[in-house]
Amino acid sequence: MGKALIIGCGGVASVVIHKCCQNSDVFSEICIASRTKSKCDALKEKLSGGKTKIETAQVNADHVDELIALIERVKPDIVINVALPYQDLTIMDACLATKTNYMDTANYEPEDTAKFEYKWQWDYRERFEKAGIMALLGCGFDPGVTGVFSAYAQKHYFDEIKYIDILDCNGGDHGYPFATNFNPEINIREVSAKGSYWEKGKWVETEPMEIKREYDFDQVGKKDMYLLHHEELESLGQNIKGIERIRFFMTFGQSYLTHLKCLENVGMTSIEPIEYEGKQIVPLQFLKAVLPDPASLGPRTVGKTNIGCIFQGSKDGKPVNY
């Protein structure tokens, strides 16, 4: 049985923490750490009474020295990073300094640029190997489970996979006209950025939401989905034998898209600082502050989520779709 230090206490972190406590045979102890310790304490209180021993701590994940001190005090077997993607590199630096295994759910993106890719984190590979520790990147649903699906398909169902379409359908209804089911700042940056897909060893770039398809999702029904850039396109492009094209699609309702377009038109999705009453503020960060907290959406959400992959390739010389 092991001990995990979990950094972050937002919506995604809450799910991870609950899952760790449900698997107390693996995680006998966890420490929940965040900039706001009161959030960690509230979650600890909610989960008290289970088999997993829980402690909490305050840490600013922007500061490597604070992270190192916390890791050295807690002495975890693994650090699970469910903080902001801007903080991936500082947490990885702290894990290197303390020789502690690392895991995250989303790849690094710089705070001042709406761009995310694996190059910054993949640059750590040799240093982690030399330190004798693991860095498991993108271990959420997508990326994460969709990568596992692809590896499983390659091993068991195909000699060669030519095409992969990754489909992410959130068919849940939380009752709000506009809200995001994970960090609003990250979600809106991702959706409003240019799309791209991987084809024949090259990236093909598209305008935001330019490519739209309709798909009938099992237990959800027909939904409009849009092509986005997503990080697992990079890793699968390097690891799936014979791959020619990988695309990623996500569903969005019309209310979400209408609100998003309006917010874009008035400048509320910008990450460029503006002057307001003598202070510098970032419009997107202000928007995040007034939107519903994603962690509050769970109890009021009804419906299904359907996430998976569609594969086309060959097995024993015959075409296979799965």
Structural description of this entry:
The protein is of the alpha/beta class and 322 residues long. 33% of the residues lie in helices and 29% in strands. It has eleven helices and 16 strands. The protein has helices at residues 11-22, 37-47, 64-74, 88-98, 119-122, 125-131, 145-156, 184-192, 232-239, 254-265, 283-290; strands spanning 2-7, 27-34, 53-58, 78-81, 101-104, 135-136, 160-170, 195-199, 202-206, 212-217, 221-227, 245-251, 274-276, 279-281, 305-315, 318-321. Helix 3 packs across helix 4 (88-98). The radius of gyration is 20 Å and the shape is globular.
Can you tag this structure with a few keywords?
alpha/beta, eight-stranded mixed sheet, six-stranded parallel sheet, 11 helices, 33% helix, globular
What is the alpha-carbon Rg in Å?
A: 20 Å
Q: What structural class do the secondary elements suggest?
A: alpha/beta
Inertia-based shape: globular
Unreliable parts: none
- Percentage of residues assigned to helices: 25-40%
Q: What proportion strand?
A: 25-35%
Mean model confidence by pLDDT: 92
Biggest beta sheet summary: 8 strands, mixed
Task: Please trace the helix and strand order, writing H or E for each element.
Answer: EHEHEHEHEHHEHEHEEEEHEHEEHEE
Count of helix runs = 11
Report the count of strand segments: 16
Distance between the termini: 37 Å
Summarize the entry for a quick read.
The protein is of the alpha/beta class and 322 residues long. Helix content is 33%, strand content 29%.
